[in-house]
Amino acid sequence: MRARTTVTVNRPPEEVYAFFADLENLPSFMAHLESVRATGGGRSHWVARAPAGRTVEWDAEVVEDDGPRLLAWRSVEGAGAPNAGTVRFTPAPAGQGTEVACEVEYRPPGGAAGALVAKLLGEEPSQQLADDLRRLKQVLETGEVVVSDGSPGGTHTRNQLSQRDARPADARP
């Protein structure tokens, strides 16, 4: 499976790259990640949430680091969740920050059936990546992920099912 998306962050490329290149920052905006720990030599250990309260772990390596323009990685052989990706950091037109273009390829647990179930549960990779980059933008521009009663968990189907209608603050129970 492959997912691609782009977001513009109102920060210079050097700042956006530095934040992203510190892989231990990734769980602060990537909702499915529990942790990423640098292990040295361009390698890292990743732990992600999986369906049914499970986790999946793998090791990855940086395969290209052309900071502040490009960062690319891939999981090492034998990974529980084989994946690879690139992130490009390009100055946005008219000095409006940085265009962050991310492309991720991975093999979902359970193959095609697992991919279908994930899509039905609102865990489609393209939407997850778009949500993650939206949160990256929020973290870098405001210092936090902004949430509200109207959108507590992004656009995942399971979160939308439990959302309440929007109402004025003085009308809340």
CA-to-CA gap between the ends? 43 Å
- Beta content: 35-45%
Instruction: Specify the CATH architecture.
Output: 2-Layer Sandwich
The number of E-state strands comes to: 7
| Helix vs. strand class | alpha+beta
Q: How big is the Rg? A: 17 Å
Spatial ordering of strands, largest sheet? 1-7-6-5-4-3-2
The number of helical runs is: 4
Helix content: 10-25%
CATH superfamily: START domain
What is this structure's SSE topology?
Elements: E1 2-9, H1 13-21, E2 33-40, E3 43-50, E4 54-66, E5 70-75, E6 83-91, E7 98-106, H2 111-120, H3 125-142, H4 157-161
Antiparallel strand pairs: 1-7, 2-3, 3-4, 4-5, 5-6, 6-7
List keywords for this structure.
4 helices; alpha+beta; 173 residues; Alpha-D-Glucose-1,6-Bisphosphate, Chain A, domain 4
Structural description of this entry:
- The protein has 173 residues and is an alpha+beta fold.
- The chain has a single domain, classed as START domain (Alpha-D-Glucose-1,6-Bisphosphate, Chain A, domain 4), CATH 3.30.530.20.
- It has four helices and seven strands; from the N terminus they run E-H-E-E-E-E-E-E-H-H-H.
- Strands 1-7-6-5-4-3-2 form a seven-stranded antiparallel β-sheet, covered by helices on one side.
- A hairpin with a 7-residue loop joins strand 5 and strand 6.
- The longest helix has 18 residues, at 125-142.
- The chain is globular, with a radius of gyration of 17 Å.
- The N and C termini lie far apart (43 Å).
